[in-house]
Amino acid sequence: MYESHNALGVAQGLQPADPVTLVRPEAALNAARFFASAFPGKSFYAVKANPSPHLIQLLWEGGIRHFDVASITEARLVRGLFPDAALAFMHPVKAEEAIAEAYHRLGVRIFSLDTHEELAKIVRATAKDGANATDLTLCVRLKVSSAHSKLSLASKFGIGVADAPALLLAARQAADSLGICFHVGSQAMSPAAYADALAFVRAAIVEAGVTVDVIDVGGGFPSRYPGMEPPSLETYFAVIERAYEALPISYSAELWCEPGRALSADYASVLVRVEKRRGAELYINDGAYGSLFDAAHVEWRYPVRLVRADQSEAEMQDFSFYGPTCDDMDHMKGPFALPADIRAGDYIEIGQLGAYGQAMRTGFNGFGAEQTSIVSDAPMLSLIPEDGRPSIPDNVLPLAAARKS
User: Fold this and answer.
1) What do you get for the CA distance between the two ends of the chain, in Å?
2) Was domain 2-22+266-375 assigned CATH 3.40.50.720?
3) pLDDT value at position 250?
4) How high is the pLDDT of residue 84?
5) Who has the most CB within 10 Å: 92, 319, 341, 387?
6) Which among 102, 140, 100, 105 has a CA at the least distance from the CA of 119?
7) Exposed, middle or buried, 54 (CB in 10 Å: 0-12/13-18/19+)?
8) DSSP string, 300-369
9) How far is CA 276 from CA 259, 271, 293, in A?
C-alpha cells in the first residue's frame, strides 16, 4: 500500500487516473481511544458505517471490543477477525436462519427486536433440543424522534411508547438480560436528542414495571462537516449520563452506545481528479455510485480542498460535481468551495468519507476501481481530540469519564 504524508504526496507520487482512498490510521485510533475512555459505558462500533477490516482492526487496537452488526455477513466478518469480540445483532428484522447462525455458530447473545413476531422468531431460532436459550440479552427498540438529526431513522423501526410495555414484559420472560434501545437519527446536532429519547425510555419502563438491565442509546453521534458544527462529543456524553442515572433501572444496569459515523468518518478521504470543467460544474472521477452517494442523494456537503503543488491564490468559488457515470443522477449539488482557477487535470481531496462513503460504493457503469494509500496528516475536519483524550473541563464531563481522567 502506497504511503505518503498527505494527498499532495499521493497525487505527485502516483498521478492516479482513478480515485484513491486515503486512510488515516492514527485518526481511527484516536477515535477509538476517545470513545473507550470518555463514553460512560460500552461502545459498540456500528459496522455498517464502514466494514473495512483495516478500520475494524484499528478500532480494536484503540480499545473498542464491542460491535453492532446489522447482518449475518457483518457478524461473520467481525467474528473472523476477533474471536473474543462481543457482537450485538441490532437489526430489528432478521432472517430466522441468520439468528440461528449468529447464536449457534458465532456466539452472538445480544439481539434487538421491535415486535412480538420478532421475539418469537428469536426464541425459536436460539432454542436447542427443545429447550429455550437462557443466556439472551434482548433489546426492545423504542421509536423516538429524529427531529434533532440531519437524517431521520424514525420511520422504519421501533415500537411506540404506548405499545412498548407489553413487548417489554414478553421479552423479560425470554431474556436473561432485558434492554431498551433506540436511534435518534444520523448526525444528531444537539444532545437534546438523547435527553428527549431517554424521557420516552423512562415512560416505557414505568408503564411496564419491568427490571431493565441495559440502556442502549444507539448511534447518531455527529462528525464535523461544512455547515454542520455540533457541540463537543463530551457534551453529548454528559447529557446522556445524567439522564441515564435518573432512570428507574437495575442497580447493575449497563449503558451502551453504537457509534458508527463518529468512529469512522475521520478515517478516510478520497482523492479525485477533475476530468472537465463546465462553468461552475466539475466533472470528477468519483460520484453518486462511488463514495459520494450521500452528497448526491441527500445533498451532504463534504469538506474539499484543491491538491496542487503551486498553491492557488484565486478567490474561492462554489462548484457542483458530476460523477463519471452516464447517469444524470450522478450529480453532487454541493456547494463545494474551491479556488476559481481550478481546471481539468487538478486533483481534489474530499474529506470525512470514512463513514458510509467507502461502504456504499458500487461498480456501476464500470467505474470504481481504485487504490488505497496511507497518509499521516490530520483529518480535514474532526470532533475527536488529537490525542484521543477528552478536551473539556472535568465538571462538564460525564461522571465516568471524569473518574477515568
Assistant:
1) 37
2) no
3) 87
4) 96
5) 319
6) 140
7) middle
8) ----EEEE-SS---SPEEEEEEE-SSS-TT-EEEEEEEEETT--TT-EEEE---TTTTTTT---GGG---
9) 38, 16, 20
Within 10 angstroms of residue 380's Cβ, the number of other Cβ atoms is 20
Place of cell 432472517: 95
Return residue ranges of the chain for CATH 3.20.20.10.
40-258
184-193 pLDDT per residue, tens: 999 999 999 9
Taking 70 as the pLDDT cut, the residues of the chain under it are 369, 388, 391-405
> Where exactly does CATH 2.40.37.10 map onto the chain?
2-22+266-375
pLDDT of the residue at 395: 43
395 residue type, one letter: N
From CA 39, how far away is CA 400, in angstroms rounded? 8
| pLDDT computed for residue 392 by the predictor | 55
- pLDDT for the residue numbered 388: 67
Kindly provide the b/e burial profile for residues 69-102, where b requires at least 16 CB atoms within 10 angstroms of the residue's own CB. bbbbebbbbbbeebeebbbbbbbbebeeebbbbb
CATH number given to 40-258? 3.20.20.10
Which residues have C-beta within 8 Å of that of residue 362, sequence separation ≥ 6? 289, 290, 368
